[in-house]
DNA sequence: GGCAAGATTCCCT
DNA sequence: GGGAATCTTGCCC
């Protein structure tokens, strides 16, 4: 399928429209290097957050704070967000001053399974290592320290992975944003049909 | 400084 | 299915 020593995706990859990027990221390989070793997973589930017009987005109505600042810059950077006891990973998209992002909600383990297992002691099976946005960051060792990191460089990057046919991609409403009015129903969540590492 | 809320996960009344 | 866990951010409710 692919070799982990291959090159990261070029910066140009991130300059496509956010909804296109959310679909293009499916099948790509997300890689994280730590002192303990290297882990990677195939992206199987994403959600698009469409900036100022999207009530569910942190950058809704052009809200600009220390936390959302990275989304106003160039695409292709990591937007990590701390949620309760967990950390979530987004890929910044949209050009400068277009604060859009794609949330990574699920990956399929590819390399470093032993390390993932040790980082996810509560998981009862392999599937529970990475079938959720907070789980996959823990399994891969992604933390708030990765905020703003360019996804074209070590130690956290994305490269081409599995080829995905358009017919394998399914879309539907996003998850966990029930109190955001009409934005709740937008079909901006994308996943690979039948993949068991999809969160729901 | 303080407090409320949150794109979640885990465990149990 | 419901509530606790427990950290960061944002705004002063």
UniProtKB/TrEMBL annotation:
Protein's name in the database: Putative 3-methyladenine DNA glycosylase
Molecular function terms, GO-annotated: alkylbase DNA N-glycosylase activity; DNA binding
UniProt record similarity statement: Belongs to the DNA glycosylase MPG family.
InterPro entries: Formyl_transferase-like_C_sf, MPG, MPG_sf
Encoding gene (name): yxlJ
Listed PANTHER family: DNA-3-METHYLADENINE GLYCOSYLASE
Keyword annotations from UniProtKB, A to Z: DNA damage, DNA repair, Hydrolase
GO BP term (any one): base-excision repair
EC nos: 3.2.2.-
Pfam family, one: Pur_DNA_glyco
